[in-house]
Amino acid sequence: MDVAHDPTDDRPTLAQLKAVVQPPEHIARYNAEHWAGALYLRHLSIHLTRLLLPTGISANGVTTLMIVIGLGGAVALLVPGLVGAVVCVVAMQLQILFDCSDGEVARWRQRFSPTGIYLDRIGHYVTEAAIPVFLGMRAGGWDWSDPRRVDGWTAVGLLVAVLVLLNKSFTDLMHVARAKSGRPVLADVVDTARPKSSGMARLRSSLAYLPFFRAFIAIEASLLVLVAAVVDAVHGDLVGSRFLVVVMVPLAVVTALGHLAAVLASSRLD
């Protein structure tokens, strides 16, 4: 239900802001809300949004900050030891926090544009591909004194990044295919993603108990990197980071192929 408000009012109360920018139908979207958003980040983003509104920053400006924070967090993995991993974890939390706020700013000001959606997609593509790249560089013992050196660990990280980008493209290409064939915009509800085959549906449900595909989402990936960094610190070498980047290769292959099969087996291309 639409709530009447003044989009030019940059100092709303929390209650006014929440009623407009966090409507239940938006929070309940099937694919658009990260679990961290529903669990705690939405409770924080409303306060961030209230602080951002008086600054005059646009929703696209907030999205740009999200991109910078995400990429910066990935680059931080070049800092050796636990420090780089901790910075990465914090940055990915902030990235999703700003990701929540950019939409909230847009909904309050009633200013929506394809540019905002486009920048948002770029932000997630760049961040989630950059994490394995810089993890690979970290696993190779990146040396700031010789930045031109690229070893096999960096190549493995790049391979994972390509697979991550390919996997993410499957969803967006589905929307492109529907648009080019004159199909309407797909509703973001669980029924559209459910496989038509009962066997595929059971397999998809069983994978919910082993969500390895989440290893390539920014927050989860950063937490795995932190665990690997702890292992590195305990062993006094890079065994944790190297193990993680290697394991990511088959997981990324299975995730991408599974995603492609799920799209083709569902009604999303009907």
TrEMBL record:
An example Gene Ontology CC term for this record: membrane
Keywords of the record: Membrane, Transferase, Transmembrane, Transmembrane helix
GO BP terms: phospholipid biosynthetic process
Highest taxon listed in the record's lineage: Bacteria
An annotated Gene Ontology molecular function: phosphotransferase activity, for other substituted phosphate groups
TM helices/strands, residue ranges: 51-71, 77-101, 152-170, 207-231, 243-265
Name by which UniProt lists this protein: CDP-alcohol phosphatidyltransferase-like enzyme
Source organism of the structure: Terracoccus luteus
